[in-house]
Amino acid sequence: MAYRETEKMRQRKAQARQRIIDCTFECVAEGGFRSARITRIAGLAGVATGTIYRHFESREDLFAEVFRLATQREVNKVAEALTTTGNATIRLEAALRQFAERALRGPMMAWSLIAEPVDPKVEEERLAYRKAYADLFEQAILEGIDEGCIPDQNARQSSTCLVGAIAESLVGPLSPTQSGQASRNLKDNNDLLVGTIIRFCMQGLTGTRR
């Protein structure tokens, strides 16, 4: 008789897979992808290292999955901010603020998502993540053009510029080599940093000083 997996076994496998993902996320949030070693993940999850490879073909596949889930969470938060009441410029400012403030509250995870050197499969997810932001910003810019609060322009190109500007402006403050010092010296100045980023982005988008 052929073996048939029971519902209980399927649930156990799903639970083990979720523990592996959760523990990998925890490792990345603490020290980036470079610190997320398979042996450590297995220990935290309470499974053998071989169990990880029964759920994920490779370390790369595990990291790509964790990256995908983490970035979708951030994209969802920006999408939520874009539903703020007000015209498109107000909504875009809210979304940019959401992006920057969440990054500064979780600098290691944000660094890992934005700039940490990663394997090719994870880099593919990073490109998809940046495109997801650009798609959201493009729609808001098009709405702003229709509303008359944003000058007519190539919305796709402008949205890509917004993603690049905000990500690049956060690389320094989020870098593990600087964020520790920054957290000691500039903790009270995050509002200033976020304000500067938003002002730069919105002035570039609207052509007016804010």
TrEMBL record:
The lineage of its organism: Bacteria, Pseudomonadati, Pseudomonadota, Gammaproteobacteria, Pseudomonadales. It comes from Marinobacter salinus. The keyword Transport does not apply. GO terms for molecular function: DNA-binding transcription factor activity; transcription cis-regulatory region binding. InterPro entries: Homeodomain-like_sf, HTH-type_TetR-like_transc_reg, HTH_TetR, Tet_transcr_reg_TetR-rel_C_sf. This is TetR family transcriptional regulator. Pfam families: TetR_N. Residues 14-74 form the HTH tetR-type domain. SUPFAM superfamilies: Homeodomain-like, Tetracyclin repressor-like, C-terminal domain.
